[in-house]
Amino acid sequence: LKKDVEINRQHLEAVQGVGSNKNDVEIKGAFKQFGANVVLNGIDLEVKQGELLTLLGPSGCGKSTTLNLIAGFLDPDRGEVHIKGNNVTKVPPYKRDLGMVFQTYSLFPHMTVYENLSFGLKLRKVGKAEQKKKISKALELVKMSGLENRYPRELSGGQRQRVAISRALVVEPELLLLDEPLSNLDAKLRHELRAEIKRLQKEIGVTTIFVTHDQEEALSMSDRVVVMNAGKIEQISTPTEIYNHPKTEFVFQFIGKSN
Ligand code: ADP
Ligand code: MG
Question: Which atom of ligand 1 is least distant from the CA of 68?
Answer without folding.
Answer: 6
